[in-house]
Amino acid sequence: MTKYERSGESRKFDPNFKGPIHNRGCTDILCCILFILALLGYFAVGILAWSQGDPRKVIYPTDSRGQFCGQAGTPLEKKPLLFYFNILKCASPLVLLEFQCPTTQLCVESCPDRHLTLVKAKLGNKEDREYYQKFCKEGVDFAALSPPELLRDGLCPAMLMPSKPFTRRCLPALGTMKGGVVVVGNETTFDAGQGVSINASEVLEASKKSNVVVEARQVAMRIFEDYTQSWYWILLGLVIAMIVSLIFIVLLRFLAGVMVWVMIVLVILVIGYGIFHCYMEYASLKGEPGADVTIRDLGLQTDFSVYLQIRQTWLAFMIILAIVEVIIILLLIFLRKRILIAIALIKEASRAVGHVMSSLFYPLLTFALLAVVIAYWAITAVFLSTSNEQVYKVFNNSECPFSRDTCDPQTFNTSNASAQCPDAECLFAFYGGETVYHRYLILFQFYNVFLFFWCANFVTALGQVTLSGAFASYYWAFKKPDDIPAYPIFSSLGRALRYHAGSLAFGSLILSLVQVIRVLLEYLDHKLKGAQNKFAKFLLSCMKCCFWCLEKCIKFLNRNAYIMIAIYGKNFCTSARDAFFLLMRNIVRVAVLDKVTDFLLFLGKLLIVGIVGIFSFFFFSGRIKAVEEAAPSLNYYWVPILTVVVGSYLIAHGFFSVYAMCVDTLFLCFLEDLERNDGSAERPYFMSQNLLSLLKKSNEESKSMD
Q1: 502 pLDDT more than 90
Q2: Keyword Transport, does the record have it (predicted)?
Q3: Which residue in 417, 479, 504, 550 could disulfide with 402, CB within 3.0 to 4.6 Å?
Q4: pTM as predicted
C-alpha cells in the first residue's frame, strides 16, 4: 500500500469548482434535533432552578433561625453581621463534619468592642445593660430575668469579647504581642463568668475552627466584594485590551512583516522586564523580618498578598520567567528560516483580511454569544446551589438521645426533645432537602455543566465555520477582489446556520464529552488527594494526561473539519476524514508552515497580555503615584489583576483567532489547489504570486528536512 493510498486519494481537477459550494443540503440532522431537545431541557432546568433557588443564601450570613442578616426589606436589614454566643464551641471537631458551630448565632448591628460578662452587665450601670442586651435574643426581658435564667434558656451569651467583622461575621480581635503571646483586645485571659477563666489561645483555636467552616465562603465573599469595588476598572482594562488588540490587528494588516518582528522583540523585552522586576523585589526583601520564610512553612493562606512578602515567591516567579524567556529565544533561533516563510503566509492572510474587513468584527458576535452562555450557566448554577431548604438540628451540651436529630424551631419548645434535654436548642444546621427535586439536584448540576460545554463549543464552532467560509471565498476567487462574493461573512454565517447546525452540534458534542470526562477526573483527583493508594493516583494521572491529549487532537481535527464543511458542505465525519487525509498527504508542510505561524500568533497574544497585565499590576497594587488615590481599596488586589489578564488573553485570542482561522483556511485551500491544479494555462493556480513563491520556499525547506 502506497503513501497516497494510506492517506486517501488526491483531489482531481474540476473546472466548475470555484470555492464554497452553494448547492448543498442539510447535514447531521439527527444531531441537530438532539441539540434542540437538549437546549429545551436546559431551559427547563433553568426555569426549575429559578423557581426553587434563592441567591440570598450566597450573599448573606444566616442566623440560628435561618434568617438572612442584612437583607434589604426585612426586620434584619440594619443587622448585617453574625454574632456567635459562644465562639469556643466552634473548636469542636463536629464543626468539621457538620459545617455549623453548635452555638446560637444572632444578627447584630455591630460587633462587640469590649470585654463584658453577663453578671457584670447585670450589676453595672444602665449603659452596660443596654449595650449587653443588643447581643441577646429579640424580645428578652433583660431586666426581669436573672443571669442563671438567661443562660439556662440560651437567651444571652455568657460574655462578650472585643471582636471585628470578618466576612460579615464577628470574630475575636486576635493579635500577638512580642514573644508570640496571643491576645484578644490586649488581654491574654478573660473572665467568662461563674468563676471560669478563658485563655486567649483557646479563642484562637476556636476562631481557626470557625474559619474552617466558612473558609471557602469567606474567600468567595472577599473576592465578590473586590469585584463590586473594582468592576468598572476591570471593564476599563478589558476595553483597553480590546483597543490594543484591534490596533495590533489593523497594523498587522498593513505592516505584517514589520509587526511580526516588533512583536517578537517586544515579547522578549516584556518578559525580560518581568525578570528584572522580580529580581528587584527579591533583593529589596533581603533582611526584612519574615521575608526568609518558605512557601511550605507558610502553608495555604487566604490572603494571597502574604506570599508577596517573602523572597521565595519572587525567586520562583523569576525562575519561571527566565525559563520561558530561554525557551522562546531558543525556538526563535532554531525556527529562524521557517519564521520567514510563516511571515509570508501571515502577509497573505493580511491581504485576505483586508478584503474581508467585516471578519475583524465577527469576534464581537462570538464574545456576545459566549457571554450569554456563561451568564446563563452561572445564574443557573447559583440558583441550583441555593435551591435547598433550611434544615434544623438539635444541638446540646450534655448527653441527649435526640442530639443532631432534625427538628422544627416552631414546635421545639413543646417537643419531647426539649423536655428530656433542657439545655438542647433547635438551631439552623445547613441547607438540604429530601424531596424528589433535591435527590436529583446533583444530576441537574451535571446537566448544567455539560450543556455549558456543548453550547460554548457550538458557538466557537459556528465562528470557525463562518470565518473559514468567508476566507475560502477569497482564496477561490480567480480574479481578486472582483470575483469575491458580496458580504462573504453574512453568506457564510447563513450557510452554517441553515445547513450545518447539526454538524456543528456533532463536533461540539464529541469535544464536550471529552471535556466533561476531564472535569470528572479532576473531581476524582481532588477527592483522592488524601488517599494513600499510589497506584490509583498514578492511574488517574495517566488518564488525565491521555484525555488532555485527546482533547487537543479533537480540537485540531474539528477545526479542519469545519473548514471542509464550509467549503464542500458535507457532513462532519466525511469532512473530518477528508481534512485529516489532506493534512497527512502534506504532513511536512504542516510542520513547516502552519505550526510556526500559530507560534508567532501566540507571541502576539502573549505581548498584549503582558502589556495590559503589567499596567494593571502597577495600578491595582497602588504603585503608580499619579493615580494612587483612584485605585480601589481591595482585600486581594490580585483578583482584578488576574481577571484583567485572563480577560485580555481571551480578547486577544478572539481577535487573533481571525488571523489563525484565515491562515488555517488558506493553508488547506493552498493544499487543495496544489492537488487540483498544476499552474498551466488549462489548470491555473488560484493562489497569488506571493503564495507561489512561498510554495517554492516551503519545498526547499521540505527537501532540507528529508
Answers
A1: yes
A2: yes
A3: 417
A4: 0.69
